[in-house]
Hints:
- With 435 residues, the protein is an all-alpha fold.
- It has 20 helices and no strands.
- Helix 9 packs parallel to helix 11.
Amino acid sequence: MTEIFQIFLQILVIFIFCYFPQYYLNFFDLKQQSIIEKISLGVMVNIFILLLLSFSNQKNFNLVYIVLIIIFCNNLFFFTIENWGFKLFDTKLIFLFFFILVFSFDLANNLKLGWDPQNFWFFKTLNFIQGGDIYNLKNIPRPDYPHLGSFIWAIYTKISFLKLEYLGRIFYIFFYCVSIFSVAELLKHDDIKKILFSSIIIILTYDVLLFNGYQEVLIFSIFTLFSKYFYLIIKNNISKSVINYYIIIILLLFLCGTWIKNEAMFFSFTSMLLILCLPKKSTLFRLSIFFSFFFIIALRFLIFKEIGLDISTIHGANYENLSLLNLGSYLGIDKILLIFKYFFFGLASNLIYIIATFAMIFMLYYRKNKTDLFFYFTSLILNFLLILSFYIFTTQPIEWALKVTIERVTFEVLGIYLIPIIIFINVYSKKIFKI
Length: 435
């Protein structure tokens, strides 16, 4: 009974931490946002703040506590005055809370850690729980792995009353559910259909194994939100201040993603290329995006070097002796066929890819306005090629690597392709929802 109450309380605490007040959004001339929109933005801001706090001295945790208390009190104050009354009974909010609560109970009944978390990620989490800082990460297995996901895990474990590690992982569930509900806001339908869409996507993608300490689910959520804001930039005739607001969010998503998993740098790069190709954008706009992204990556490498990590070792165990001179030796036909075999197994296990691909092909053939679809179809091809290259050039035993990772790697950018499904529903909704 105590743990049930703690789970319920933990969700409420995370909810308040991740609420972003409308008061601050007014500075960007944004209209009144739904509570789901404010939570999805708040999650991202919360992760960014935790990234900054992760560089502080964890032996003196008082600073972290002070910052967290200020954020909590600020958010609680604005949440109360902005949502007082019946807004608290928002139907989408109730269903969102329901999914998070059910999945949290499922997590509590499946207290397992995956192989990577057991051997790598949880050691980083323990480092922060026990007062270690980022300078101690070089003494922990796989120091080339970034630390933000583990730091989030540690912080939400430390602020829980029972101090149980799985309570920290409830944040992963929260972010996962919020990102899907947030994307559903793009549907041009009533709340019931948005809830129905969110529920179907969650049913198709949820697996308790995703929350066994793996970081892929955080990357999934980050790129799901990226896809949403990228679509808003493409589709809407919006003011410059609102475009800047969306770009800031996207850059924050890229920044935080690169501190969660190494491959997020590469997925962010392909996504950045799409932004550079946006029509009717000035050269200054493109240069600012390019140099901002370059700064994000360069800053990460500089910090890695500062904390004592030899940046040449990043994923070095997976790509030993790889150079431009010997790339041809990795392109054996048997190896490529084996990769394609498991790659398609990975796609089949993530059904959204199949649905989104058919939706895009159908609309590219029948729909007149195809600009937005070309961006997402190009993104699909680039990310597929990128994923294939991860395995083509690895020096790990290839079949073993494919068996244990392909489903999780393909899952990381799966959320991007919820947008073509949403476009399809919006375009053909009269036939789909004809009653």
